[in-house]
């Protein structure tokens, strides 16, 4: 356990210095190839947990410490230990002893080792008071940056509590059933036969009561089912593809929506992304589903002149780069890595992509603009500006009742997304 704590200290320190949690963990597995599955699970739990509740944990430490330790690794070790004391089932004395032992690896200072011991024991003694005190500040109560909390309160005054709380939940494991191969009821029975309970969220989407490894899912390697958030599963049906259409999936990696489109209809699909390594994932996903794209292209969606063959598309899915503010429960590092100024940068990039793709959409065609963001600067306000600049564009109403004014807010069943379907008149 001491080894996993120390590796988690390194992971958390790199993320809070500005690196993506996903990338840091991938690098970690490569550096520590001999880690067992149990050790990897513990490192992930510590890392995700600390970042999920960083606001609360850091507020508690601010009360317990007169000043932060000069060695930031000791600070991160305390964060991890507090997370364990609050959210794990290990006995408190075990957690404290392991933290002190880990501190000996990080420093020779007996004073610092004593500090680790004293801080954690003080927390145990004053736990309820400290939790109450930390919650007096909104950053400690919601474990989000203050600017994020303020923005959500202003934009969603009736929903911001629920959104912030949903962000801090562990994400559900949701499956998309490939109904070109098997219907929902039949696959749900396969799950039951394997001892897995599930429930229907909406058509094609099954949520597992308890997450499992993909290797345990019946027919996964045969393409019967894919792992995809229920909110993300709305994209392909909303694009309204029909047999024989020429379709573009822009910014497609890792390919979940591409596979879904090919499950829905026999179309000529062009898959586009500017990340070569992530396009490998798209190819692997399509091979597993036994589906083929007409063309897979590595290029920038904002510059069709470089990659486009001159033939207009009947349908375009523009799932553009964004702040990812709607998928925080899956990527808790986003809360602490994003800056409010990033929203304007994303908006400029999104506008460029949307304007470029509109030029290669056929008349009477449809474009689905999608983000996994909940901030209007990237969504509703951007579309309003686009409509002012393009008289041939109109918004088509969406039939999904949970999507209000284009926005699907995150809850315990799905992530947050924005969808607008534009019709080219």
Structure characteristics:
425 residues, alpha/beta, four-stranded antiparallel sheet, 12 strands, 48% helix
Outline of the structure:
This protein is α/β, with parallel strands linked by helices.
Structural topology:
Elements: H1 2-16, H2 21-31, H3 37-52, H4 54-64, H5 72-87, H6 92-106, H7 110-125, H8 127-134, H9 138-142, H10 146-155, H11 160-167, E1 174-177, H12 184-193, E2 198-202, E3 205-208, E4 225-227, H13 235-238, E5 246-250, H14 256-264, E6 268-273, H15 276-289, E7 295-298, H16 304-307, E8 313-319, H17 333-337, H18 342-359, E9 361-371, H19 380-389, E10 393-396, E11 407-408, E12 417-424
Parallel strand pairs: 5-6, 5-8, 6-7, 8-9
Antiparallel strand pairs: 1-3, 1-4, 2-3, 9-12, 10-12, 11-12
Give the amount of beta strand, in percent.
5-15%
Largest sheet: 8 strands, mixed
First-to-last CA distance = 62 Å
Q: Name the average pLDDT.
A: 95
Mass-distribution shape: globular
- Helical/strand content category: alpha/beta
């Amino acid at each position: 356990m001491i080894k996993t704590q120390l590796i988690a200290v390194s992971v958390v320190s790199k993320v809070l210095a500005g690196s993506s949690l996903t990338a840091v963990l991938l690098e970690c597995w490569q550096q520590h190839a001999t880690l067992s599955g149990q050790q990897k699970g513990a490192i992930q739990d510590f890392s995700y947990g600390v970042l999920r509740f960083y606001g609360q944990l850091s507020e508690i430490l601010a009360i317990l410490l007169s000043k932060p330790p000069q060695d930031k690794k000791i600070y991160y070790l305390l964060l991890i230990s507090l997370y364990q004391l609050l959210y794990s089932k290990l006995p408190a004395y075990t957690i404290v002893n392991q933290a002190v032992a880990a501190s000996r690896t990080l420093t020779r200072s007996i004073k610092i080792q004593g500090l680790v011991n004293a801080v954690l024991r003080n927390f145990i003694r004053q736990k309820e008071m400290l939790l109450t005190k930390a919650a007096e500040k909104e950053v400690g109560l919601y474990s989000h940056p203050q600017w994020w909390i303020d923005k959500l309160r202003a934009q969603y005054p009736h929903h911001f509590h629920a959104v912030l709380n949903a962000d801090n939940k562990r994400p559900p494991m949701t499956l998309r059933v490939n109904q070109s191969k098997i219907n929902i009821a039949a696959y749900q029975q396969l799950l039951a036969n394997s001892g897995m309970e599930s429930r229907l969220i909406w058509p094609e989407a099954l949520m597992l009561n308890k997450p499992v490894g993909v290797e345990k899912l019946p027919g996964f390697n045969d393409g019967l089912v894919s792992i995809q958030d229920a909110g993300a599963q709305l994209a392909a049906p909303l694009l309204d593809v029909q047999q024989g259409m020429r379709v573009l999936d822009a910014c497609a990696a890792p390919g979940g929506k591409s596979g879904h489109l090919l499950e829905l209809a026999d179309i000529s699909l062009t898959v586009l992304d500017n990340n070569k390594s992530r396009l490998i994932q798209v190819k692997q996903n399509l091979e597993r589903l036994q589906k083929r794209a007409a063309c897979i292209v590595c290029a920038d969606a904002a510059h069709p002149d470089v990659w486009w063959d001159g033939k207009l598309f009947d349908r375009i899915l523009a799932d553009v780069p964004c702040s990812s503010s709607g998928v925080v429960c899956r990527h808790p590092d986003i809360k602490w890595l994003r800056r409010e100024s990033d929203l304007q940068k994303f908006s400029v990039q999104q506008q460029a992509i949307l304007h470029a793709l509109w030029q290669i959409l056929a008349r009477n065609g449809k474009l689905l603009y999608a983000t996994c963001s909940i901030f209007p600067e990237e969504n509703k306000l951007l579309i309003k500006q686009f409509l002012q600049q393009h008289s041939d564009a109109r918004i088509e109403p969406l039939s999904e009742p949970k999507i209000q004014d284009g926005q699907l807010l995150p809850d315990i069943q799905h992530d947050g997304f924005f969808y607008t379907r534009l019709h080219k008149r």
